[in-house]
Amino acid sequence: MPIPIPMDGFLLIMGRLSGLFLSAPIFSSRMIPGRVKVLVIILLAGIFSRFLPIGFAQNLATPAQFIGAIVVEVLVGYTIGFVVYVAMAAIQLAGQLMDMQMGFAIVNVVDPQSGTQIPLMGNLTQTVALLIYLAIDGHHYLLEALAESYRIIPVLGMNLNLHFLDLLTEITVYMFVIAVKIAAPLVIAIMTADIAMGFIARTVPQMNVFIVGLPLKILMGLAALLIMLPVYIWVFNILFARFFTYLDQILYTLGH
To answer: Concatenated DSSP letters for 151-211?
Structure first.
């Protein structure tokens, strides 16, 4: 049965949705026009306001309290999207590590999601990750997590405790660890080629190792990527599942 929500509840839901659309992959994409994002936020807020029970940790008696509640709601939504954004950042960082070894570090392309320039392999790994993210309905899971967050975190009920900071630190550290693990096979393959070219340079001094080694490193990197791509697809699925678990933990921490 639909639950009647006054206008202030509708605006508070818009605040939490706006935070999600500021940080979450796909939702925060610059390829989506701003007017379209606003329209989608209004439509989702209208749907959520009819079916979501919204609890209040404190009474909103003054306009200042209501504005503060809006700010807190935006922060909650931003945190929900930020957790998955970190997973994407880890995959992009892995691609940057690959580029540094392959010699593509100066070859940048514009990322349509963020509008910034990222290396070539970083764009490739991020695109594969986005396709997997959509295939597993990760964007739907974020909307479900936002709807579930109202049961855990009432309005003005966000609790920024030490456990929350510890979780953020753990997620950040895990981002660097998983980036190194993803890039490790390709980096090892290129390092093997470097060692081989070092031996060749000692035995055949007349050979210009730099001219021969650069295309060899690119070839070794692309071959290793082609071999590891099925493994990366499996790893990305596990990675998203891990970060969705982190998201559940963060929501529970913020609400207690």
So the answer is: HHS-BT-----HHHHHHHHHHHHHHHHHHHHHHHHHHHHHHHHHHHHHHHHHH-TTS-HHH
